Amino acid sequence: MKEKYESAFRLVVPQRTYLIVRVDGRSFHTYTQGSERPYDRRIAEAMDAGAQALCAEMMGCRFAYGQSDEYSFLATDFDTLQSEAWFKGNIQKIASIGASIFTAAFNYARMGQARELGVALDGAEGRTWMSASFDARVFVIPSRSEVENYFIWRQQDASRNSLNMLASFHYSHEELLNTGASERHELLHKRGVNWNDCPTDQKRGRVIAKRERTRQVSYVHKRTQERVEEIVAESYWALDSEIPVFTQDRGYLAGLIPVQD
Questions:
Q1: Per residue of the chain (261 residues), what is the pLDDT tens digit?
Q2: DSSP single-letter state for residue 4
Q3: Within its chain, how far is the Cα of 89 from the centroid?
Q4: What stretch of H or E contains 164?
Q5: Is residue 259 part of a domain?
Q6: Total domain count, the chain
Q7: Residue 19 is part of which domain span?
Q8: Which pairs with CB-CB distance under 8 Å and at least 24 residues apart come from 28-32?
Q9: Is residue 260 part of a domain?
Q10: Are 60 and 199 in contact (CB under 8 A)?
């Protein structure tokens, strides 16, 4: 059965390339009904928690970029001759496990938020808070320049989404019908609202990348039984919510996307 049927649909990504995994919220228009408008900070924080969990699990992950109800992850497998792709490039496993990890971490974060607000977790409202699900798509991009263009595209989409959400909060669908970006800016100005005054991450999205830090640890030496205090270095996945416009600061993405030898 495995060889005759299952293996026939086992697809893998090419080796030594740039792998993109994009995780998207499923039916989030319905899920976010009743959320804070125009932007819900708690949902953004839960998205970040999901992304940090997946970054930590994804072999070869370089960074993640998030906006709205999506996060895109870049992974590579060309660091060394011994480097391997996550799950050896098995597309079904990457997509299914990637979506599962993100969903679990997102809902766990939402559970913590619900507790903080005093929402009964065993009630209908509590179950709604933890009912989100995500899908994932997997593909490769052949060149570093195109990887950069991909993230520029996602950021430009983020800015459009952000403006549209803000305009929809202040105007009806009918009032915004057939209006472009510049017209929506003007309409917002009439209400005394300036999209440029919004927090940076609401306009441009957020990035999660690996950083280094030091911390002091204390332990008892097994042989001498003496207490030892020392400073150790460790890596962690840090959130950057003050990212630049990618097209205006090319060096930002250049520092995140590795060069393939």
A1: 777 777 778 899 999 999 999 999 999 999 998 899 999 999 999 999 999 999 999 999 999 999 999 999 999 999 888 889 999 999 999 999 999 999 999 999 999 999 999 988 888 888 888 899 999 999 999 999 999 999 999 999 999 999 999 999 999 999 999 999 999 999 999 999 999 999 999 999 999 999 998 888 888 888 888 888 888 888 999 999 999 999 999 999 999 999 987
A2: I
A3: 20
A4: helix 144-170
A5: no
A6: 1
A7: 2-254
A8: 28/69, 28/132, 31/128, 31/131, 31/132, 32/69
A9: no
A10: no
Cis omega before residue 38 (within 30°)? yes
232: domain CATH number is 3.30.70.3000
| Closest residue by Cα to residue 65 from 57, 76, 77, 54 | 54
Neighbours of 134 (CB within 10 A): 24
Amino acid at 73: F
**Residue 261: inside a domain, yes or no?**
no
Query: Cα–Cα distance between 165 and 39 in angstroms, integer?
Result: 8
User: φ and ψ at 133, to 5 degrees?
Assistant: -140, 155
Provide the token pair at 218.
């204390």
Q: Residue 133: inside a domain, yes or no?
A: yes
Using a cut of 0.90, tell me whether the model's pTM lies above it: yes
